[in-house]
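If you are new to this repository, start here. Below is one unmodified record pulled from the training split, so you can see the exact layout before writing a loader.
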Amino acid sequence: MDEKNPILEKASQETSYIEAKEVYIKTDRTQGNMVILKESESSPYYFMMFVGDAEITAIAKEKGFVEPKRPLTHDLYLSILHQAGVVFDKIEIYDVRENTFYAKVYARIHGEERIFDSRPSDAVALALHEGIPIMVNKKLLHRELTPEEIKAYEEIIKMVKF
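And here is the target side for that same chain:
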């Protein structure tokens, strides 16, 4: 008998996602490589993660910023998976635990939905390559500060003695 778990059902209903349609990358020698996801260019909310050099290269390639001379590792894997009939549907960046973000890749294999654990940076590169939705749990979003908030924050900092 297939019974529904009310706790899991309630948790599923409470989780809300945005679709990140804007993907920005930033490389900085002092801060590192950053990927910033936003629902729209004008949205004040964003998701940011730091990634390694290989991951930023893969995302930059999918954004059209770099053209590697040879296929990247994920290009090989995707080629194999496509030939095997795997269809990708979406990715979800759904949680953070101990400063580590978690993502899922949703795919169909012979018509059956499968969900795979993934690093968010790999999932974003996959989503950009496949043109599938990038979903981000709203609880992981941050709000950009307005110029007024930045000024007020700077005034507070000036008053604090270290």
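Two things worth knowing about this chain: Residues 6-159 form a domain with the Bifunctional nuclease domain fold (CATH 3.10.690.10). Strands lie at 17-19, 22-28, 32-38, 45-51, 86-97, 100-109, 112-118, 134-137, 142-143.
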